[in-house]
Amino acid sequence: AVLETANQQQQALLKQVVRVFSAIGPTTSPASAAEFVTNSLPTRLPEFIYDPDNGCTFDVWLNRYEDVIVQDGSTLDEAAKARLIVSKLDVVAYAHFTNHILPKRSSALCFDDTVKTLKELFEHNTSVFARRCTYLRTQRNGESLSDYTGMVNRQHEMAEFNAITPEQMKCLVWICGLHTPDDADIRTLALRKMEDNPQTTLKQLSLEIQQFLNIRRDAKLLGSPPSLLQPEVNAVTIKKNCTQNPPSPCFRCGGSHWAINCYFIDKTCHSCKRIGHKKGYCKNFTNKRSRNRKKSRATSNVVVIASTGTDVAPANRIYRKVKINGATIQMRLDTGADVILLCIKDWIKINRPKLLPPLVKLKSADNKDIKVRGYFECDFDVNGHKGRGNCYVADTQSLLGLDWIAQNKPLLRRLTEDTICKVSTTTLNHLRSSTSADSPIGPRDSKMEEQFNRRYGARRRHFEVGDAIYAKDCRGPKSTWMSGIIVRKTGNATYIVRCGKLLWTRHINRLR
């Protein structure tokens, strides 16, 4: 009975509370509710902080809160919306915005102009292409797996990969492949083209870049006029590139310098008493002296118009048509040219193949440098003989040298047999007429034989100690004779001589 009484009292209390709240009823009108929402907008919108490296641009901020400003602030006019957005800029962004619109004030701009200006000022500081390249090079550097996943998602949105087309992807890969310093101009031009017209196709981009390269190449040719050619003489010498440091230690002292610049070149060794090396390097010095002293020199074959005399037939110039990469070029046969030379005009005729840096230096017969643009490897066809070799582009006329001709010896004989036969026939006829069978043959000349034959009185030369002599000096480029005296005899035909302060070992053939 007690529980039942308590339950009845509780039900009566609840009914009384319901009646009280029902009597109170709603006290706010719809207009006051809308006003409350509008007044709460400044607190609902966060402050805008410009951080382009992390994707915090004004465009991203507006896309997130545009519905709040437009829908919830529908009762606001355009000027009030503009003031609301400007009030959410941080100190740095607000100063940048107000300085940019001077002499106008922020209140003088409408909502659309304010949004447009803020998008221009606080956009990405890198191009779409750069953001896409950064996205493709994204790597995990110690972040957690969830942070790394979020970073990939954020950079994907920043790179705008959802809007990329297949042609834009091709152009992206094409430009990324131009990574060498020589392609810097091409990369800059290609990026400018993609920024101006993002819908450019790969074919259009390639054609425009090729046109730019052709114009730049032609401009270089116009800026450097070809050198004057000598009509009568064509010569090509190959000068190999040499390093500044010697390839091996000095045989005189073991130092890292050239032997000709050695300090001991005129010093006397205390062990063997010979001049020209340091003590302890006698063996190296002996081995070096036993080798051939002749220096290798670059050959210089000169092609000159033959004499017009009656004894030798005139050598006419020979021109041959050569196919280079399918294009027919008329080249002059020059057996004095060690390499193949192509003039600028003929190089343009064969569609300007890409040139590589020259491997050698070229000189003319008068020892003047020939300006070489570069060389390229190509296929050639000379009189039906096909081959492959290097062709140098220079400021000369086109010359067909031995490099290609020598690949086929029958071809070399066929190209030159006309001129060779004319010269050889004339020379042989002249010799035959001067040595006919009717001419009497005189006695054999034996003066040279008797000069070195002891039976006819020839004597061996001999020097005594203290005799004044002249010794041959071979140190310079040209041999000279120096006065001196005999110090002692060291062999059957060798002597030690003193020339001034120098002691030399000389063979009797180098003494007089």
Number of helices: 17
Helix content: 25-40%
Distance between the termini: 160 Å
* CATH superfamily heading of the domain at 301-422: Acid Proteases
The helix/strand class is alpha+beta
Please name the CATH topology of the domain at 301-422: Cathepsin D, subunit A, domain 1
Write down the overall mean pLDDT.
Answer: 74
Q: In terms of per-residue confidence, which ranges show pLDDT below 50 for 5 or more consecutive residues?
A: 27-31, 227-243, 292-315
Radius of gyration: 48 Å
Indicate the CATH architecture of the domain at 301-422: Beta Barrel
The first-level CATH class of the domain at 301-422 is given as: Mainly Beta
Name the shape in a single word. elongated
Lateral arrangement of strands in the main beta sheet: 5-9-8-3-4-10
Pfam family, one: DUF7083
Keywords: Endonuclease, Hydrolase, Nuclease, Nucleotidyltransferase, Transferase
Domain DUF7083: 38-124
GO molecular function: endonuclease activity; nucleotidyltransferase activity
